[in-house]
């Protein structure tokens, strides 16, 4: 059974449309200026479009790939009107993203617990993402245990406790300054003893010393494997979409420090930098699995790249 398809239905399209409103308005405002007074897609329009895409946080590499695709289309069709540009962009970006392997079909294994280790710098919405994930799993009748292994900040432990209380799932925690690996070990033991379906482990979000971060995450993994030999089954990196290009840099840093298997991009509803999802989805060989498009407990969605592109380029009539 495709569990993730089951929990995250396509009925949330309106929320997605609304969540991308700021990004869309900003993008189309820039696009209108880029084609002002032009009826044909020519070199000048393409140069302006390149600036629009880069300034919309799509990223330089992905922008170049998009422009190359549109140039090829112009050469083939001979004449393209600027009034067709938003539709062309929608088609070419969807085509570009479809070239990457579709890894959005995630299945929970029969063996439990399914262990998710969540990483990311402080302030990206890591703990909130964990809480919303726990809610999603629980809403489908799955039992969840949370582990507060970010022991370097009392606020992190307190925040995760608040989410555990809100979602009504058990949490394993120790006092601030405790060994994170010890908390992870206890959490997995608790998950096994309770017969939990899913265990979600929070980790500290410090990037100032990549070697220490790498060592810490490696230790947490090693200790977890004493309880569940193949844990963690997923390493989810949470990125703040509102930071734009900084999100790219964080992705580079964390993927160098540990084996990240999936990405979540949060806070897209409060920013005009939603184009960053297009770039990250294109450039990293790691699937964007979730996007945060609102503050509500149900506003964490499984990322569907085609629905995303459709919402991003949907003109309000």
From TrEMBL:
Gene3D superfamilies attached to this UniProt entry: P-loop containing nucleotide triphosphate hydrolases, Signal recognition particle SRP54, nucleotide-binding domain
Superkingdom, natural source: Bacteria
Signal peptide as annotated in the record: none
Membrane topology note: Peripheral membrane protein
Reaction catalysed by this enzyme: GTP + H2O = GDP + phosphate + H(+)
EC numbers: 3.6.5.4
Alphabetically ordered keywords of this record: Cell membrane, Cytoplasm, GTP-binding, Hydrolase, Membrane, Nucleotide-binding, Receptor
SRP54-type proteins GTP-binding domain mapped to chain residues: 287-300
Chief place where the protein resides: membrane
SMART domains assigned: AAA (SM00382), SRP54 (SM00962), SRP54_N (SM00963)
Places the protein is found: Cell membrane; Cytoplasm
Annotated TM spans: none
Pfam families per record: SRP54 (PF00448), SRP54_N (PF02881)
Binding site for GTP: 120-127, 202-206, 266-269
Function: Involved in targeting and insertion of nascent membrane proteins into the cytoplasmic membrane. Acts as a receptor for the complex formed by the signal recognition particle (SRP) and the ribosome-nascent chain (RNC).
Family according to the record: Belongs to the GTP-binding SRP family. FtsY subfamily.
Subunit structure: Part of the signal recognition particle protein translocation system, which is composed of SRP and FtsY.
Name of the protein in its database record: Signal recognition particle receptor FtsY
Source organism (scientific name): Mesonia sediminis
């Amino acid at each position: 059974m495709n569990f993730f398809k089951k929990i995250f239905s396509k009925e949330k399209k309106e929320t997605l449309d609304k969540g991308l409103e700021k990004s869309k308005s900003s993008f189309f405002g820039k696009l209108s200026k880029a084609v002002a007074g032009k009826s044909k897609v020519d070199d000048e329009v393409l140069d302006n479009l390149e600036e629009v895409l880069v300034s919309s946080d799509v990223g330089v590499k992905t922008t170049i790939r998009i422009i190359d695709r549109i140039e090829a289309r112009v050469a083939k069709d001979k004449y393209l009107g600027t009034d067709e540009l938003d539709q062309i962009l929608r088609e070419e970006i969807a085509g570009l993203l479809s070239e990457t392997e579709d890894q959005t079909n995630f299945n929970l294994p029969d063996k439990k617990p399914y262990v998710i280790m969540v990483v990311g710098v402080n302030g990206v919405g890591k703990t909130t993402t964990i809480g919303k994930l726990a809610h999603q799993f629980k809403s489908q009748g799955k039992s969840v245990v949370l582990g507060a292994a970010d022991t370097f900040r009392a606020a992190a432990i307190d925040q995760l406790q608040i989410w555990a209380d809100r979602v009504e799932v058990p949490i394993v925690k120790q006092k601030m300054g405790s060994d994170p690996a010890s908390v992870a070990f206890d959490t997995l033991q608790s998950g096994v003893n309770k017969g939990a379906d899913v265990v979600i482990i929070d980790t500290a979000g410090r990037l100032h010393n990549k070697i220490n971060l790498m060592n810490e995450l490696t230790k947490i993994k090693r200790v977890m494997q004493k309880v569940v030999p193949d844990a963690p089954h997923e390493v989810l990196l949470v990125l703040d979409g509102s930071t734009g290009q900084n999100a790219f840099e964080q992705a580079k840093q964390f993927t160098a420090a540990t084996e990240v298997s999936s990405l979540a991009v949060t806070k897209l509803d409060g920013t005009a930098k939603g184009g960053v999802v297009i770039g990250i989805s294109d450039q990293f060989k790691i699937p964007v699995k979730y996007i945060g498009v609102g503050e509500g407990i149900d506003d964490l969605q499984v990322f569907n790249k085609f629905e995303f592109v459709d919402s991003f380029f949907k003109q309000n009539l």
